[in-house]
Every structure is written in structure tokens, then in C-alpha cells.
Amino acid sequence: LLACLVAIYGLAYRQGMDKERVMQICGAALQPAGIILLVIGAGGVFKQVLVDSGVGPALGNALTGAGLPVALACFVLSGAVRIIQGSATVACLTAVGLIMPVIEPLHYSGAQLAALSICIAGGSIICSHVNDAGFWLFGRFTGATEAQTLKTWTLMETILGTVGAIIGMIAFELLS
């Protein structure tokens, strides 16, 4: 947005460019950002619906009650939210909001909570697909098709998130 304001000043005011041409340039520049903001905003609404509906404790208890170690439950929960709605940021925030009622009474140390945060962060970037703003940014800026982006970006993000979560799980176990 700031870049468009600078462009308006530089192109329209100082260079005397036609108003319609300046608006066309700014519109083309803002279109990808608008889509990204829309996706993230919708994800934020989804997160708040899950948190406000009381799904958090039920879902967290179901995951830990199923016998999943808490670090793995953090990864799975964050990954599930990521796959459902797309945004890594919203997946992290949602997973924290849903898992905190379960882990808060366990009084983990700061280092243990940091390890769980790594597990959540790892889950939040796996399986990037068409709901993810980063998927589209990568595809648009590299000129890759959707199929190519799925084969490269999605695979890279999944490997990165899984390896990171495994490191977080190992750290959590070592700190326990």
C-alpha cells in the first residue's frame, strides 16, 4: 500500500502520468495483496469460531486422550488446521488457542513450552496448497503452474515442517 502511494506521487504528481494509467498500475500491484489479506482474514475468523465455540478443550483432550504424546498432538493439531484453512500464521494461533487448555495445568517449563512451540510451528507449514497465500506467491513469482508449485513448494514446506517438528519432539523429550 505504501509503495502504491509512493508510485502515485512519483508517477502521477512528479511525472505527469495519466490518472487512469496510475490507477491501473496500482490496481495490478494491490490485487495479489488483497487476495492474501482475504485468505488470512478468513482464517482468523475460522480460528476464533473454533476457540469461542469451546472446541479447544474437547479437541485437545481428544488428541491427548487418544494416547498421542503432547508434542505429537501439537504437531497434528497445527497441521490439521493448516490443511483445513491454509494460513501458517492462523494455524499456529489456532493450535495454541486449542492446546493451551490441555497443557496449562501440566506446568511445563519455559524450555518445554518452547519445544512444543517448535512442534506447532512445524505443523503449521506442512502441506501448503491452494488455500495458502505463500503457495500463490511462490507460484506467481516463479512462474510455476499449480501442479509445479504442489510438487516443489508443497513438498519443501512439508519436509521442512516435519523435520522441524521432529527436532521439537526430540527436544521436548530431552527436557522432560
- Would you tell me the overall average pLDDT? 85
Report the structural category.
mainly alpha
First and last CA, distance: 47 Å
Number of strands: 0
Number of domains: 1
Order of helices and strands: HHHHHHHH
Q: What summary fits the major beta sheet?
A: none
What value does the Rg take, in angstroms? 20 Å
| % residues in beta strands | under 5%
Helical fraction equals over 70%
Backbone shape: elongated
Secondary structure elements and their pairing?
Layout: H1 2-14, H2 19-52, H3 55-65, H4 70-85, H5 88-103, H6 110-124, H7 133-142, H8 146-175
Helix pairs in contact: 1-2, 2-5, 3-5, 4-5, 4-6, 5-6, 6-8, 7-8
What distinguishing features does this structure have?
single chain; 176 residues; mainly alpha; 8 helices; 82% helix
